[in-house]
Amino acid sequence: MPLAPLAAREVAAAVGAALDNVRKHAGEQASAWILVEDEPDEVIVTVRDDGPGIPEGRLAQAEGEGRLGVALSIRGRLRDLGGSAELISVPGQGTEVELKVPKDLTQARGKAEQR
Amino acid sequence: MTEATEGRQDPIKVMVVDDHPMWRDAVARDLAESGFEVVATAGDGDQAVRRAKAAAPDVLVLDLNLPAKPGVQVCKEVVAANPALRVLVLSASGEHADVLEAVKSGATGYLLKSASTEELRDAVRRTAVGDPVFTPGLAGLVLGEYRRLASEPAPAPDTDEPKAPRLTDRETEVLRLVAKGLSYKQIAERLVISHRTVQNHVQNTLGKLQLHNRVELVRYAIERGLDDE
């Protein structure tokens, strides 16, 4: 089952933001992969690069300085859809942004309101 | 002795099938210069099947978009005639359904035509020794196929319809990492398992699909009474 148009647009924007991040931070030589998985009740989109990765503590530091613009905009978009965005970075193995979007948007909105 | 033939008595015998002569000749020349023995080339599907039987290559480098007979059909026929023959699909992007069909009928590797000469050499070498050549794109296709099979209604218990193959959690985990572009080495590090174990998991995901495909074909043949012929 495909995503609702609104959700699809938001996911596309989040993927675009993740790719912008790769372009800015992963270095000239880096490659990026996008994996789209159509699960029974959610769609998972992963954007991965093989750049140097984010050193441990760096994310928390950036967050403390209020410099997490892109990560926040990706997370915000997904949260509004009742989904989630996870950032995984292993030194030497690049950075992965995993976006999860529930297919049933009405349920997602209900959940968001309950929070 | 060149790298391609290391550890082997004879050079790996390769056949190149593609309908574009310039491309075909360039691939054949690259492989020959790397120490492989190019035993034949073919420009259409019929020619490919005939020459593969006569020239008996170890590895068939196969384009899928061929005149006279589609590449998928060529793959089915040459593997049926000689199960020891390894097929490496070298295709343009966007032929997803065909690539999956070729892999289910016995191809053990898939490389995009945008690959480098070095990647092709490495892929032919690995195909020859029986290692599946899984690009991230192919891993994604295979994952999708298992999901499709899982979403089909289960066969009724009183029929002899084979159950759809399933991936173990570990196999799914490994395949997802391949699809995200990680190398076997990186996957082994991340999951704290050996390189060989990663390879085995990947190989199993392909093996189960191919076995399922063969069982389905046999069942289909019996149903239609084709087994008497």
From TrEMBL, chain B:
| GO MF term set | DNA binding
- List residues, modification 4-aspartylphosphate: 63
Q: Which InterPro entries match?
A: CheY-like_superfamily, NreC/VraR/RcsB-like_REC, Sig_transdc_resp-reg_C-effctor, Sig_transdc_resp-reg_receiver, Tscrpt_reg_LuxR_C, WalR-like
What does the record list as GO biological process? phosphorelay signal transduction system; regulation of DNA-templated transcription
Q: Which domain of life is it from?
A: Bacteria
Q: Which residues cross the membrane?
A: none
Q: Does the keyword DNA-binding apply?
A: yes
Show where the Response regulatory domain sits. Answer: 13-128
Family annotation (CDD domains): LuxR_C_like, REC_NarL-like
HTH luxR-type domain location? 160-225
User: Coiled coil located at which positions?
Assistant: none
Q: What is this protein called?
A: Response regulator transcription factor
Q: Which organism is it from?
A: Streptomyces tuirus
